[in-house]
Specification:
Elements: E1 13-16, E2 19-22, H1 23-27, E3 31-36, H2 43-54, H3 56-61, E4 64-70, H4 74-88, E5 96-98, H5 103-107, E6 122-127, E7 133-139, H6 147-162, E8 165-166, E9 177-179, H7 185-191, E10 197-200, E11 203-206
Parallel strand pairs: 3-4, 4-5
Antiparallel strand pairs: 1-2, 1-5, 3-6, 6-7, 8-9, 9-11, 10-11
This protein binds benzoic acid (BEZ).
Benzoic acid binds next to helix 2.
């Protein structure tokens, strides 16, 4: 069964490169990114995991833990970690889940049988403090993900969780945002003291509200 936005992220216990964890306990009250990769000792996956390790401090700044998963066994994950460091210069600094019986992959619908009967696709789940799924992405094995985009999305998710705003196409942290249509002009004046510009009655932009 596919995981949809707003669903509670399935809980699980698993062996990881950082030891055994219970997912919800490990995640705590912060945000998390759970992402799958198809297979250990494969080229694109090696670059992806090195990239996430390099960006770990950016996820930390956003109170967001990252955790990877594949259906390979824990011994493979541990051996592969050396290659990731060799190739990318970044040592694995977040846990990788071993899911050899595919129980977690199946519960998150990470195996798409028409793509591969055995390997996980490149799934991403961003999970909020309330353990519900805020964003899902699915990429094929052949296409490595853009993790800067993931950080950008987390900025939007965290901002829009706290303010009655939405972010426009290609928005980046610090740029103007859109006041959601459900807020009247009268309320918008109170909620957004920096003011707003109405480009259309339904498209009102205001400076990012959580910045000085
Ligand atoms: C890769 O990570 O390079 C990869 C994994 C599975 C299939 C194709 C590519």
């Amino acid at each position: 069964m596919a995981i949809r936005l707003g669903d509670v992220a399935p809980d699980f216990s698993a062996d990881t490169t950082d030891g055994r964890i219970n997912f919800h306990e490990w995640k705590g009250n912060g945000w998390a990114v759970l992402f799958s990769h198809p297979k250990d000792f494969t080229p694109v996956c090696t670059t992806e995991l090195g990239t996430v390790a390099r960006l770990k401090s950016e996820f930390d700044k956003r109170n967001t833990k990252v955790i990877g998963l594949s259906v390979d066994p824990i011994e493979d994950h541990k051996r592969w970690a050396g290659d990731i460091k060799d190739v990318t210069g970044s040592a694995l600094n977040f846990p990788l889940i071993a899911d050899p019986d595919r129980a977690i992959a199946l519960s998150y619908d990470m195996i798409h049988p028409n793509a591969s009967a055995t390997a996980t696709v490149r799934s991403v789940f961003v999970i909020g403090p309330d353990n519900t799924v805020k964003l899902t992405l699915t990429y094929p094995a052949s296409t490595g993900r853009n993790f800067d985009e993931l950080l950008r999305v987390i900025d939007s998710l965290q901002l829009t969780a706290n303010y009655s705003v939405a972010t426009p196409a290609d928005w980046k942290y610090g740029e103007d945002v859109i006041i959601v249509p459900a807020v009247s002009d009268e309320d918008a004046k109170k909620k957004f003291p920096k003011g707003f510009t109405a480009k259309k009655p339904y498209l009102r932009v205001t400076p990012q509200p959580d910045r000085p």
